[in-house]
Specification:
Heterodimer of LeuC and LeuD. This protein is of the alpha/beta class. Among the domains are: about 140 residues, Aconitase, domain 3 (2-Layer Sandwich), CATH 3.30.499.10; about 180 residues, Aconitase, domain 3 (2-Layer Sandwich). About 30% of the residues lie in helices and about 15% in strands. The protein has 15 helices and 19 strands. Helix 2 crosses helix 5 and helix 12 packs parallel to helix 15. The protein starts with 5 loop residues before the first helix and ends in a 15-residue tail after the last helix. The site of 3-isopropylmalic acid has 8 residues, from loops.
């Protein structure tokens, strides 16, 4: 058989039937996660057709997008629309027999944080779910990708979806990771180079020594954020780190079953001579902490740079986009990005709300205070992460620094709950999208790593975290 990529192997092993000659297949999907925002119509469709869920045990339901994250958690939703969504969600879980983590459940959180914690994701699986950032699961050697409402309904009824094969792209990462540079900076650098549509139509495989040396959580960060370059699927070959992460998780196989599976999972990889449709290589040695200045995730610069001049853009549409972005962001070309003052600092989202992210941020906050005039919140990705951060003393570091310590949820990643910025407010944000209005109408978002957000919070402006790291706070 011809050499195959890991992506092709995962798709091939899940094809139920070829539907045409151009790569359209009926794909078996092993598991899914459902949220309150994209699942209601799918369940309404099942109800209308009198259908059952084919394999309720393969799904998990968590509320994450619309819930408040106030420090004191109650079951009540202050917003009536959100309350209706959550009530219908709970009703669907009950009627269709799917495991559901209520907002007060200690296992609750953002779906992309909770699913791996629960061991819902295993190498070799296909996980399709109603959220574009389901690529997170690629970090475990599964094919993760996002599906729309009608596909969710089709999946629930049959455990299959119609799927068109993607082109393949290998992103090979080499070199020593510089001091102060995180997986977030690396993926932002890739996006800046290939552009916000650079991976459109592709499934991405991350490879190379930087990836093997990276923690599983770091790989999740990259697998989620590469969606902002248009990727519709991500895979990373599973290794011992992935097995160590998953072993003993609630939904992971146990005993002899685990041993047999683990042996097989370690063989999952692209063949050495497999061909990719596109190859991208990056030596990370020169990557610096990055910050976005515009309203697209590829409008990013090193924290030491000046805000670029739109006049330097050759393509007229890029020039127009840059001008519009600068005006929306209220910035001036030529100013150092470090001179830009912030109003708000947000650490959270499925991209950067895991324990390693909180440890990075706490290192900067330790012994320092949030600058006057700045409001800072840390929103852990799950209640489990929250408990761990409290046990490790990180929560105390945050509150001592004047940071609000919240309950989990998508929160200020998108303005779909109580955590919304006011028009014109500027936020240093550990999230993945900086589109106009993403954090509230007229709100201005600067994407960066959690440690960089902390550096902005304590200085009151966008700042180079490297000048704070290793230097004790006052
Ligand atoms: C609400 C949901 C459909 C959406 C997504 O698919 O990504 C959201 O999570 C986002 O990050 O914009
Ligand atoms: S945290 Fe943000 S990116 Fe992630 S699922 Fe929620 S809204 Fe989407």
């Amino acid at each position: 058989m011809a050499a195959r990529t890991l992506y092709d192997k995962l798709v091939d092993s899940h094809v139920v039937r070829n539907l045409d000659d151009a790569g359209l297949v009926l794909l078996y999907v092993d598991r899914t996660v459902l949220n309150e925002y994209t699942s209601p119509q799918a369940f309404a469709g099942l109800r209308a057709a009198g259908r059952k869920v084919w394999n309720p045990k393969a799904a998990l339901m968590v509320v994450d997008h619309v819930n408040p994250t106030a420090a004191q958690r109650t079951r009540a939703m202050p917003d009536s629309g959100a309350a209706r969504q959550v009530d219908y969600f709970a009703e669907n879980a009950r009627d269709f027999g799917i495991e559901y983590f209520d907002i007060l459940d200690p296992r609750q959180g953002i779906e992309h944080v909770v699913a791996p914690e629960q061991g819902l994701v295993m190498p070799g699986m296909v996980i399709a779910a109603g959220d574009s950032h389901s690529t997170a699961y690629g970090a475990f050697g599964a094919l993760g990708y996002g599906i729309g409402t009608s596909d969710i309904e089709h999946y629930l009824a049959t455990s299959t979806v119609r799927y068109r094969r993607l082109k393949t792209m290998r992103i090979h990462l080499t070199g020593d990771v510089p001091f102060g540079v995180t997986p977030k900076d690396i993926v932002m650098e890739i996006i800046r180079r290939i552009g916000a549509d650079g991976a459109t139509g592709y499934a991405v495989e991350f490879t190379g020594p930087v990836v093997s040396n990276m923690s599983v959580e770091g790989r999740i960060v990259m697998s989620i954020m590469i969606v902002e370059a248009g990727a519709r699927g991500v895979v990373v070959a599973p290794d011992q780190k992935v097995l160590d992460y998953l072993k003993g998780r609630p939904r992971a196989p146990k005993g002899e079953m685990w041993e047999r599976a683990a042996k097989k999972w370690l063989t999952l990889a692209s063949d050495p001579d497999a061909r990719f449709d596109r190859e991208v290589a990056l030596d990370v040695a020169d990557v610096a902490p990055l910050v976005t200045w515009g309203t697209s995730p590829d409008q990013a610069i090193a924290v030491t740079d000046i805000i670029p001049d739109p006049a330097q853009q050759v393509a007229p549409e890029r020039k127009a986009a840059a001008l519009r972005a600068l005006s929306y962001m209220g910035l001036r070309a030529g100013d150092p990005i470090q001179s830009v003052p912030i109003d708000f600092a947000f650490i959270g989202s499925c991209t950067n709300s895991r324990i390693e992210d909180l440890r990075d941020a706490a290192e900067v906050f330790r012994g320092r205070r949030v600058a006057a005039g700045v409001r800072a919140i840390v929103v852990p990705g799950s209640t489990h992460v929250r408990a761990q951060a409290e046990a490790e003393g990180l929560a105390k570091v945050f509150t001592d620094a004047g940071v609000e310590w919240r309950q989990s949820g998508c929160s200020m990643c998108l303005a779909m709950n109580d955590d919304v910025l006011k028009p014109g407010e500027r936020c240093a944000s550990s999230t993945n999208r900086n589109f106009e209005g993403r954090q509230g109408p007229g709100a201005r978002t600067h994407l960066m790593s959690p440690a960089m957000v902390a550096a902005a919070a304590v200085t009151g402006h966008i700042a180079d975290v490297r000048s704070l790291l290793g230097v004790a706070g006052q």
